[in-house]
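Propose amino acids for all 278 sites.
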């Protein structure tokens, strides 16, 4: 099958989210059209559309919500993924599952590789790891993509760290920003993530792959980078994770075979093109 034809035949779940906003191919569905927690509906839509590949983006990624309502978290991230995997097998489609650094425990001193043993420490991480186990248990034709600290979507969809920092900087009452110094990760531009996934689909890659922008940063370093690019006078204070009732952790990912551009270059482009603030 030609790559253009293949991309047209991909069905995307969760198109309304941050990552989904960069998808420029395939059959797009959001929660209004496709409820992944409803197996009957998932089977009906998949059988009707007959996609060759499923790109499963739909997930509950709000960490606070997941910790406060684990039942909802598991229902969407684990049961929902089970439904998508079952339906994918039913129509003999390949499944691409987007997973997370949160499947690891965060205590390793160096970035996590694909072969490292998962050991999730919160409900969100456990629910996503269960999703991984489901995909591997039900399907032979699958690709699990773990990623980390995603930013993207602009003002409309970026409700995560980068978006929150920008909103604080735009507030005239903000005099200083506190950002954690002892939590590190691999910042990832959702646009770069989608472009790489597109290549992996065309190349028919299988298994587990880590995709993130190159480099490691703390929350403090990311906030400082944004402030400097905006030429803002607002101070960025480095604080211990305990200030936010959190723990020190390493959430960074690495891959021997897949490397994207540096996170600084990606973030600068994002600030210029989507927030138009530099």
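Proposal:
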């Amino acid at each position: 099958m030609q790559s253009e034809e293949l991309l047209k035949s991909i069905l995307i779940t969760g198109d309304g989210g941050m990552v989904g906003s960069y998808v420029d191919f395939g059959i797009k569905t959001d929660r209004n059209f496709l409820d992944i927690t409803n197996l009957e509906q998932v089977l009906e839509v998949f059988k009707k559309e007959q996609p060759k590949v499923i790109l499963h983006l739909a997930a509950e990624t709000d960490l606070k919500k997941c910790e406060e309502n684990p039942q909802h978290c598991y229902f969407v991230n684990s049961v929902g993924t089970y439904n998508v995997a079952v339906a994918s097998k039913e129509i003999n489609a390949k499944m691409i599952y987007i997973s997370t650094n949160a499947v690891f425990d965060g205590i390793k001193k160096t970035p996590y590789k694909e072969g490292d043993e998962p050991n999730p420490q919160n409900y969100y991480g456990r629910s996503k790891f269960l999703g991984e186990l489901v995909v591997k248990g039900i399907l032979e034709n699958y690709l699990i993509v773990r990623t980390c600290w995603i930013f993207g979507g602009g003002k409309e969809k970026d409700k995560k760290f980068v978006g929150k920092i920008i909103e604080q900087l735009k507030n005239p009452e903000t005099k200083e920003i506190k950002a954690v110094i002892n939590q590190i990760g691999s910042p990832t531009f959702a646009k770069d993530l989608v472009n790489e996934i597109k290549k992996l689909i065309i190349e028919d890659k299988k298994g587990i792959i880590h995709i993130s922008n190159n480099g490691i940063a703390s929350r403090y370093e990311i906030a400082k980078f944004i402030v400097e690019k905006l030429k803002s006078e607002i101070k960025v204070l480095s604080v211990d994770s305990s200030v936010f009732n959190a723990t020190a952790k390493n959430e960074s990912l690495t891959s021997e075979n897949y490397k994207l551009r540096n996170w600084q270059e990606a973030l600068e482009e994002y600030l210029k093109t989507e927030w138009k603030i530099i």
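The longest strand covers residues 94-100. The CA atoms of residues 185 and 252 lie 4 Å apart.
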